[in-house]
Amino acid sequence: MTGFEYHSRRVHPALRPYVADLTGYAYPGAPPALHRGLPSQYLTLVITLDEPLGLAWPGSPVNTFETVVGGLHSTAVHISQSPNRSGIQLALRPAAARSLLGLPPGELASMVVELDDILGRSARVVSEQLREAPTWAERFDLVESVCSSTGRTSPRRRRGPSSAGRGGDSARLPGRSAYTILPPRSGGAGGT
């Protein structure tokens, strides 16, 4: 892919128990028609820097997100029909779910959730600040700063997604945006 930008920085030592990888990406033109987000040992957090990110589980419609957290899952998610061309992605260790997001990782298993639904307005503020930062180094600094302060200053439990609607449905929290839940796990890793 000509001109694709990939930026990465080693995470600050204090964050390494929680954040395995911090990357930035940018496509100069249209992003690929289909990209697969494969299952991994990490939760995925993406903050877009331009347009929303389109995500769909196999056989389900595309939902768009400006900031999204994906829990641990066993099926590849399809990233398609997405105008998104740039963003920041964090590979979060399961310990980060509780420390940085205020939820046990099991509450995010097999689902993707708009970050605003977990963190509220602060997620939108960080997204806006990242969009205004002119360099990848400044964006990475901001992400690390937010992660460091969130982990230390957030003893309260944040309201998380309900378990209603499991089984591949879209569910809506009262007053919140829709989120998508994976179908029940099967014996294999799934994905296409």
Task: Report on this structure.
- The chain is of the alpha+beta class and 192 residues long.
- It has a single domain (5-181), classed as Jelly Rolls, CATH 2.60.120.
- 22% of the residues lie in helices and 29% in strands.
- The strands form 2 sheets. It has an 8-stranded antiparallel β-sheet with strand order 1-2-9-4-7-10-12-11.
- The longest helix is centred in the last third of the chain and has 18 residues, at 136-153.
- The model is unreliable at 152-192 (pLDDT under 50).
Brief write-up:
This protein has 192 residues and is of the alpha+beta class.
What letter string, H or E per element, gives the SSE order? Answer: EEEEEEEEEHEHHHEE
| Helix residue percentage | 10-25%
Oligomer: single chain
CATH architectural group:
Sandwich
Topology:
Elements: E1 5-9, E2 19-26, E3 34-37, E4 43-48, E5 53-56, E6 63-65, E7 67-70, E8 77-80, E9 86-92, H1 94-101, E10 111-114, H2 115-119, H3 121-132, H4 136-153, E11 170-172, E12 178-181
Antiparallel strand pairs: 1-2, 2-9, 3-8, 4-7, 4-9, 5-6, 5-8, 7-10, 10-12, 11-12
